[in-house]
Amino acid sequence: MTNCDYPAVLRACAYWCVALRARPKTESTSLTTFTDLALGAPLLKALADENYTAPTPIQAQAIPYVLDGKDLLGIAQTGTGKTAAFALPLLQKLSMDKARLMPRSTRCLILVPTRELAQQVADSITTYGKYLRVRTSVVVGGVSIRGQIRRLSTGTDVLVATPGRLLDLIDQKAVTISDLHTLILDEADQMLDLGFIHDLRRITKLVPAKRQTLFFSATMPKQIAELASAYLTDPVQVSVAPVATTAEKVDQRVIFLDKSDKVSRLRDLLAGKDVERAIVFARTKHGADKVVRDLERSGLDAAAIHGNKSQGQRQRALGDFKNGSLRVLVATDIAARGIDVDGISHVVNYDLPNVPETYVHRIGRTARAGAAGIAISLCIPEERPYLRDIERLTKRALDLMPGEDAASDPRGEPGFGREGGTNKKGRSGPGRSSAGRGRPNGNGESRGAAARGPRPERGESAERGERREGGERRVAEGEARKPRFGRNGEKSGAKSWAGKGDGASRKPHRKGQGANTNASRSNGGRSNDGPVQFGV
C-alpha cells in the first residue's frame, strides 16, 4: 500500500469545499434603491443626506445576506462601496439590539490592516449611523493606549481595530471580544500580505463560536479560501470588479526614461496646470521622503505618508490634501490603503510596483464617481519586467505619453521585459534581491525582484509603532523583524556568510536601519507568540 499524505489531502478537500460552498449566487437581483434593501428610516435619511440614491453592485448583493445573518465572503476592490456593504446592515441590526452593553465589551469587531483604513471605516459608520444611538471606537497603534483604555471601559457597539493594538488591549484586559455577535475582516488579503496571519488566528480563538463572520478581500488567493474554510460557516460569496479590471475612465500612460531623469520628469509633470490633485507612489518609505525633498527643492509643495510618519503627521498631510491646501501627496502602497479622497486628477507611479495587482489599486485612486483621471508610470529599464506583468494582468498596453518619441518605446524589441531587469551579476529587478536571504531591507520594505515572481510588497509597518506607557514595547514603525534563522538554518547572530550565486556577503546594519541585534522579536514583540513575522 502506497503512503498517503493525509494532511495534504484534507487541506485540498477543505479548499475545494469552501470554493464550492462559497460560489457566487446565480440568481439576479433587481434591487435599484436603498429602500428595496429594507433598511430602516434613520439609515435612509443618513444616506439621503450624503446624496446616495442607488446601491453599488457589491451593496445590492451583500446587504440582504448580511441582514439575513449569513456568513459572507465578499470579493471587491477599493472604491466599490464595500464599506457600506457591511456597515449599513450592521447598523440596522445594532439598532434592533436592545441588550445591555457590558463594560469593556463590544458587539461587533471590524479588523483592518492600517490606521488610515480604520479611521475611514469608523468615519463611514459614524456618517451612516448619525441618527442611531450606536457607539463606535477606533483602536490603532501610534497613539496613546491610555486614552483607548479609558474609552473602552464603558463598552462599545462597534470596535474598529488593527490586530496588533487590539491584542495589546486584550493582554491588558482593557477589552473583551468573547461576547460579540459579528466579526468583520476588511481587506483580508492585505492583512495576510502584512504578516497578520498569527494575530488573526489568535483573535479568532477569542471570539465566540456562534457569530456572524464577514470577509472582504480584493483578491481570492488560496490563503483566503483556507481562512474562509476555517472561520466561515456555509458562506455566501459575492464578487464584483475583478482585480484585473482598471477604471474605465483612467487615461493610462507610460514614459520610458533613465533613472537619472526621473526627478526632473516628475517635477515637469506635477508643474502642469492640469494637475489639480496628485498622488505619487514610491516603493519605499525612504524613497518617498527623497521624492518630497526633491520636489520641495524645486519649489513644489508635497508631503509624504508612510509607516515611519507619526499618526499626527499622517493625519495632517491627509487633511491638507483633502482640503486642497496640498496638491501633491507622496505615498507608499501600505500607507495609501484607506485614502478616500475625491477629485484626484493624477496618479503617478514614480516607482512601478513589482506586484501587478498593486498597479490596479494605485490607479483606482483617480477617476472615481464617474470622473476622469490620468495615471502616468515612469518606467526605467530595470522596471520593464514589472510593466510587462502589469500589461498582461490588465490585458491592455499602456499608451506612450503624448510628446514622447516613439523610438523610446522598447516594447517592440525582442525579449522586452526579460533582460531589462537583470544586471551584470544576475540580480533581477531594481536593487538587489533578498530572495533566500531571510533578511528584508533595514527600512522595513522588502526589496523588489522580478525574478521572485508575483509577490506582495510587504514589511511596511502601519501600526506597530506604538509604545505601551509603563512598559509597552517599542518597535520603530516599519522596522523589520530580525529572522531567527539565516539562509542555511543558522541562528540569528551567527557570523556573516557569503551569499552563493551572486557573490554577495551580508553587510552590517547601518545605524538606525532596523538592526536590533540584541534581541529577536516574536510576532509583534509579544513573547511566545509564534514565529517571527513582518507585523504591522
Shape: globular
CATH architecture of the largest domain: 3-Layer(aba) Sandwich
Overall CATH class of the largest domain:
Alpha Beta
Q: Secondary-structure element sequence?
A: HHHEHEHEHEHEHHEHEEHEHEHEHEHEHE
Low-confidence stretches: 15-30, 419-536
CATH H-level superfamily title of the largest domain: P-loop containing nucleotide triphosphate hydrolases
Share of residues in helices? 25-40%
Radius of gyration: 24 Å
The count of domains is 3
Terminal Cα span: 47 Å
Largest sheet: 7 strands, parallel
Strand-residue fraction?
5-15%
Structural class: alpha/beta
SS element count, helices: 16
β-strand number: 14
Strand order of the largest sheet: 3-4-2-5-6-1-7
What is the CATH fold-level name of the largest domain?
Answer: Rossmann fold
Mean pLDDT: 77
Structural description of this entry:
The chain is α/β, with parallel strands linked by helices and 536 residues long. It has three domains: 6-239, P-loop containing nucleotide triphosphate hydrolases (Rossmann fold), CATH 3.40.50.300; 250-412, Rossmann fold (3-Layer(aba) Sandwich); 454-536, no CATH class. It is built from 16 helices and 14 strands. Helix 1 (6-21) crosses helix 10 and helix 4 packs across helix 5 (115-128). Mean pLDDT is 77; it is low at 15-30 and 419-536. Residues 430-453 have a biased composition (Low complexity).
